[in-house]
User: Which sequence fits this backbone?
């Protein structure tokens, strides 16, 4: 800008010099007779000096105007630089905010992994407890069978003794024994029928108790494997803050080895449903029980996925 101002000043000085030169070397020569017809007299030297003074003021005004323009451009440039610095600061703040958000997501992911590990540990502990309970149940069943066999042996022995006694009595008094035998036979039949009925009732009660225990075991197994399936899905589930307070119901069909044969949405938030189905497909296989009764309740299940924040 300083070079432009200097050029402009030199140009104006050249113009002023041209005016002065014209005034010095082209003045009209005196004539003997001068006739003026409604015209103005030629400018004299003092008019030329006045013109030079006027042009000098114009140059000064021009220089002042150029300085003002230069200062205005400098202020504009300063403003542009301040705007650039402000945008750079905003960009830096946005980058810092994004870094904090990424750090928070990483912390949440690690917390989720820790929760998953704890859930797996709890599931393992539950399996160990179940195995112990099953071993106790098998031992109790074995003891019961041994007790039944002992009771049967005692009954057989008692029956043999009764038959031996009956034969001895038959030899001593056949006719009297025949009547007695008929009465004893009738009573024995009644007692035997009563015993058989009592035994059948006892067996039915025991079977009902075993069925109840078995049903409770199956229900517990189903709930346990549902929790394992949910944990596996959560491992692959990608959460988004837009999912807060929303959920989706899924229907999942599994093969005998846990292979996902079908997954479909039963309704819910579209974003949650898409993420949940994608997590199931990524898992490929899900935990299933080798127990047929448990698997029958797992092969076609409905789950509700509700992201937790």
Assistant:
């Amino acid at each position: 800008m300083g070079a432009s101002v200097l050029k402009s000043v030199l140009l104006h000085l050249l113009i002023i010099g041209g005016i002065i030169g014209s005034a010095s070397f082209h003045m009209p020569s005196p004539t003997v007779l001068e006739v003026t017809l409604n015209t103005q007299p030629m400018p004299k030297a003092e008019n030329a000096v006045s013109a030079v003074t006027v042009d000098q003021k114009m140059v000064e005004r021009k220089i002042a105007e150029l300085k003002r323009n230069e200062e205005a451009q400098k202020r504009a440039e300063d403003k542009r630089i301040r705007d650039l610095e402000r945008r750079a600061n905003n960009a830096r703040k946005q980058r810092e905010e994004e870094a904090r958000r990424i750090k928070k997501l990483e912390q949440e992911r690690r917390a989720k992994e820790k929760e998953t590990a704890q859930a797996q540990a709890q599931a393992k502990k539950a399996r160990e407890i179940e195995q112990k309970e099953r071993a106790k149940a098998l031992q109790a069943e074995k003891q019961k069978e041994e007790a039944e066999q002992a009771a049967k042996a005692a009954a057989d022995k008692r029956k043999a003794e009764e038959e031996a006694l009956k034969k001895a009595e038959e030899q001593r008094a056949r006719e009297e024994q025949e009547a007695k035998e008929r009465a004893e036979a009738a009573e024995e039949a009644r007692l035997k029928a009563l015993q058989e009925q009592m035994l059948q009732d006892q067996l039915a009660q025991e079977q009902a108790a075993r069925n109840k225990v078995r049903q409770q075991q199956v229900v517990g197994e189903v709930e346990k494997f549902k929790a394992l399936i949910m944990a596996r899905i959560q491992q692959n589930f990608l959460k988004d803050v837009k999912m807060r307070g929303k959920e989706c119901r899924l229907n999942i069909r599994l093969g005998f080895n846990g292979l996902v044969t079908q997954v479909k949405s039963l309704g819910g938030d579209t974003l949650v449903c898409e993420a949940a189905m994608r997590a199931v497909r990524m898992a490929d296989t899900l935990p299933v029980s080798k127990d047929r009764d448990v698997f029958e309740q797992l092969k076609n299940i409905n789950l509700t996925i509700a992201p937790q924040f």
Observations:
- Residues 226 and 298 are 8 Å apart (CA to CA).
